[in-house]
Every structure is written in C-alpha cells, then in structure tokens.
Amino acid sequence: MPHYDALVHLLAGGLGGTVGAIVTCPLEVVKTRLQSSVSHFNLSGPPSIVNRFYSLALGASEPPLNAQNSQLGIWRCLRYIVETEGARALFKGLGPNLVGVAPSRAIYFATYSNSKNFLTDTLPPDAPVSVTHILSAAAAGFVSCTITNPVWFVKTRLQLDENSYGRRKRTLQCIKDIHRTHGLVGFYKGITASYFGITETIIHFVIYEHIKAVLRSHADENNHFAHYMIAGAISKTCASVIAYPHEVARTRLRQEGSKYTGFMQTIGLVYKEEGYSGLYRGLGTQLVRQIPNTALMMTTYEGVVFMLTNQTSNL
C-alpha cells in the first residue's frame, strides 16, 4: 500500500502540474520576458527597443516621457508578442514545460507526501504540525528543483527567444547551444536562486495546509474541492509576493550573457540599477498566472488522490 500511495501522489502531482502549465503558458512567457534584462519588455534598455515596444504594443509613435517607470499591461504584452512573432510564440517553451512539469510536480508532491508521513511517525507527538509541513516542503523543493533545473533552464532560454517563426530557436538547438557554450554545468545556472526559492514553497504549503484545515473544519464535505482552490490561490499569492525577487534573479541568471554571476550579486545589481521595483518586475503577471495555475494544480492533485484512494478502499 505505501508503494501505491507513492504512485498516487506521483500521478496526481504530474497531472495537476500539466493542466496548470498548458492553461497559463502565455502568461508565463510574458512574465519571463518582464523579468529579463535582455527582452524588449525591459524599458530600461536602448531607446530603439523602447520605441519599438511602444509603437507596436501601445500604438504610439514615441514612448511617453515616463516610459522608464510605466507599468506594462498584460494584454499589451500579449499583443506585442502576437504582432511581432506570431500567435504560436505565446507557447514558446511549452515543450520543455510539459516535459518537465509532470515529473517536477510528481517528484515534488511525492517527496512532500512521503516526507510528511515520515516526519509524522518520527517527530514527537507534541511537535507542532507546522514543523512537519515546513520540513516536508523544504525537502520537496530541494529534490524537485535539483533534478529538473536543466529543463527549466532550456524553457527560459526558449521563452526569451524573440525571433519570429522562420528563425525561431528549436528545443534541440537550444540544448546544443547551451552545452557548446557552457558544458553540462551550464544547465544548472540559476540553481542557487531556485534553492533560495524554496522559501516560497515552504510559505505556500504551510499556509495551504492551515487554510485547508480551517475550511474543512467549518464546512461540509461536499465543498472540499472549492476549499482546495481557495486555499491554493490564497497560499500561493502570499508566497509569491514575499519571495518573488528570487524569480527575477533566476531569470537573469539563465538569460544569455555574463553580467549576472550569482544570486546575491544579481539581487544587488538589479536593485542598484533598477531600484526596488526592479526586483518585482512581472509580479502582476505572475499573480494573474499563478493564482488560477495553483488553484487548478492543487484541485487536480487533491481530486486525483481522492478518487484513486477511494477506489482502492472500495476494492
């Protein structure tokens, strides 16, 4: 039965992550480009790039005087991508995303579930439940991002490729270019930022478990899936806002160039050159993407676990 439970969580986590990745891919492309310093979405770049963005995305012949500090709307960014690269560009990086999201989420949820069960049996009975959730989330985040970082690195490079269809970089070519330039170690650029991002995972799951427990104790069982969506959306929003700068640093470390060399160096340089707001570039898009993504993922995960577990208990 323990082996079956592990398979259930692997399958549920994989399906949950896949559903969320497909639905929210266009928003992820926008978010990644907003976070980058080499994308046309970066309004601190050369004037020609700023002019190009405003003429195509905003319908203006010249950028306003306060272009450096303006907030880009999601719809305008999506429109810019479609008009300059074609509609298919909204799904750049989806291939590696689908290849990576299922095993990533499967590994994550399986590690989280197994760690939680292990700690529940190992820690003293009077140990706070939050300690179990924190340690389980930390273990799940570390194992997952270590194994799958090469996939996310390739995905980020593809999403930052702004060529139109005829010159669009293919996944295999992207992998070859990375290996030729940086070797195998190059696929792990940004891993330090991912490790710092484990704090987001911890915050997310601690809040999620707490809200889920509170909602389940105050309502009937028929509303559990709504509770999962609410808990997932609230917990991920809080976690994203608190830990967001690590995502900006991770994207900068994964983009082409040698300007950014380490996590703390990247954080300091972004703050120095772009100010506090630079550390939160793309946060609005991230929240719009992550809230439905997490709600879908957690609901799918809990639903699959519920159905498979109940089917087994009825055999």
Automatic annotation (TrEMBL):
Q: What is one Gene Ontology biological process annotated in the Swiss-Prot or TrEMBL record? A: pyrimidine nucleotide import into mitochondrion
**Solcar repeat residue intervals:** 4-118, 128-214, 223-307
Q: Out of the domains of life, which is the source?
A: Eukaryota
- The question of whether RNA-binding is a record keyword is answered with no
**PROSITE patterns given in the database record:** SOLCAR
Molecular function (GO) terms listed? pyrimidine nucleotide transmembrane transporter activity
Q: Name one GO cellular component term.
A: mitochondrial inner membrane
Membrane topology annotation: Multi-pass membrane protein
Listed A to Z, the keywords are:
Membrane, Mitochondrion, Mitochondrion inner membrane, Repeat, Transmembrane, Transmembrane helix, Transport
Localization per Swiss-Prot or TrEMBL: Mitochondrion inner membrane
The record's comment on protein family reads: Belongs to the mitochondrial carrier (TC 2.A.29) family.
Q: Which PANTHER family match?
A: MITOCHONDRIAL CARRIER PROTEIN RIM2
> What protein does this entry describe?
Solute carrier family 25 member 36-A
* The species this protein was found in: Galendromus occidentalis
